[in-house]
Amino acid sequence: MTSRERLQRLVENQRFQNFIIAMIIFNAGTLALETSRGMVDSYGTLLHTLDYIALAIFVFELLAKVYVYRGDFFRDPWNIFDSVVVGIALVPATGPFAVLRALRILRVLRLVSLVPSMRKVVAGLLAAIPGMASIAALLGLIIFVASVMATKLFGGIAPEDFGDLGTSLFTLFQVMTGESWPDIAQGIMEQAPLAWIFFIVYILVSSFAVLNLFIAVVVSAMEDQLRDEIREEEQRQAAEQAAANAEILTELRALRAEVAQLRERQLDPS
């Protein structure tokens, strides 16, 4: 067995994958402890050392995969994602790159690429992006129309909330999330008693209708992905069954040939 084959067995071993997952979780804990000033003052050197050890393990894992898979390594989007996340930590976090120290926590996102169930969720979200883009455009159009109306209707009553289009856009986005909208509506209704009609219709359309479409699109995309996985599994099982059937037929033909030869020998003893 060559060194490449031995290394491939290592990186594909489930215990090694579990070890990498454990290191990611452990590294997340050390990075979280670095946010505590008291912990940094007392154990700063130890925490930095543990962080460097975890980084060295991640770099070794990626280099091992590059050596094992060669060009195929970069054909997998998850490998590219892992390389970018780990590569950020290798940039010297000094001077203008000091902000990159805060990005070290992105290494925790490698759990997504290593845990199959998380990969499926992310794949479902990515598959739903085209449909979500259309719904986002519809939602933006609704907020824009409602903001123009609110500016004209309530700009003089509550200029701090609806004084101009930009302010109205922000206020209605806040109302859509359900944050403090009763206070906003109550202040306007003191001078415009029928203002509740505008707010209720807007919330029903934006929050309960359009936002729920996002959930529907994501669920539909995940169902399609699950259906594709089931179809692929069925095709794989069918191919395995066909191969097994072909092997059985081959053995039956061989047995028939042997039986025929035995009969010929019995009929022709000479």
Description:
The protein has 270 residues and is mostly helical. The protein folds into two domains: 3-114, Voltage-gated potassium channels. Chain C (Four Helix Bundle (Hemerythrin (Met), subunit A), Up-down Bundle), CATH 1.20.120; 115-270, Helix Hairpins. Helix content is 80%, strand content 0%. The protein has eleven helices and no strands. It has helices at 3-11, 14-33, 37-69, 77-90, 110-114, 116-127, 129-154, 159-162, 165-176, 181-189, 195-267. It starts with a helix and ends with a helix. The model has no long low-confidence stretch (mean pLDDT 83).
Unreliable residue stretches: none
Number of domains: 2
Q: List SSEs in N-to-C order.
A: HHHHHHHHHHH
Find the CATH topology of the largest domain.
Helix Hairpins
Proportion of beta-strand residues: under 5%
* Radius of gyration (Å): 31 Å
Overall outline: flat
CATH class placement of the largest domain = Mainly Alpha
Mean pLDDT: 83
Distance between the termini: 52 Å
Given the helix and strand composition, which structural class is it? Answer: mainly alpha
**Helical amount among residues, as a percent range?**
over 70%
Number of strands: 0
For the sheet with most strands, the description reads: none
Question: Could you name the key traits of this structure?
Answer:
Helix Hairpins, mainly alpha, 2 domains, 270 residues, Four Helix Bundle (Hemerythrin (Met), subunit A)
Summarize the model shown.
The protein has helices spanning 3-11, 14-33, 37-69, 77-90, 110-114, 116-127, 129-154, 159-162, 165-176, 181-189, 195-267. It has 270 residues and is mainly α.
